[in-house]
Amino acid sequence: MKAVLYAVVDGEMISWQVTLDVRADVAYWLGRQKNPERILMLDPALSFGQAILLKEKMNRLIWNVRYVREGKSSWSAFYQHVLERLHKEAADLIKQWKEQGQ
């Protein structure tokens, strides 16, 4: 089963989420009750288990959106940083799985 990992930027917060149906999640976040500033969808899709593990790791990290808001950084530079950190966390998970023989 494939799942999509994505980040919701809302104010100073970033919340990482996992979905099996991107359309349903986008409808939820862009509906009347919610209105995040940005949604960053990651592609390609991952296995559901991998997506959940990465979501948990990424939600433990502190993301500083304030620098972008204050003009000290661009959104594209911020996204580049997010993707670099995501790749590092994914590589760490793969290394951990290999060491455990999974």
What is this entry, summarized?
This protein is α+β, with helices and mostly antiparallel strands and 102 residues long. The chain is 49% helix and 22% strand.
Structure description:
This protein is α+β, with helices and mostly antiparallel strands and 102 residues long. The chain has one domain. It contains four helices and four strands, in the order E-E-H-E-E-H-H-H. Strands 1, 2, 3 and 4 form a four-stranded antiparallel β-sheet that branches. It is flat.
- What is the percentage of strand-forming residues? 15-25%
Give the domain tally.
Answer: 1
Main β-sheet: number of strands, strand sense, barrel status?
4 strands, antiparallel
- Gap between N and C termini: 18 Å
- Total DSSP helices: 4
What is the global morphology?
A: flat
Number of strand segments: 4
Can you give the mean pLDDT?
Answer: 85
Keywords:
102 residues, 4-stranded antiparallel β-sheet, alpha+beta
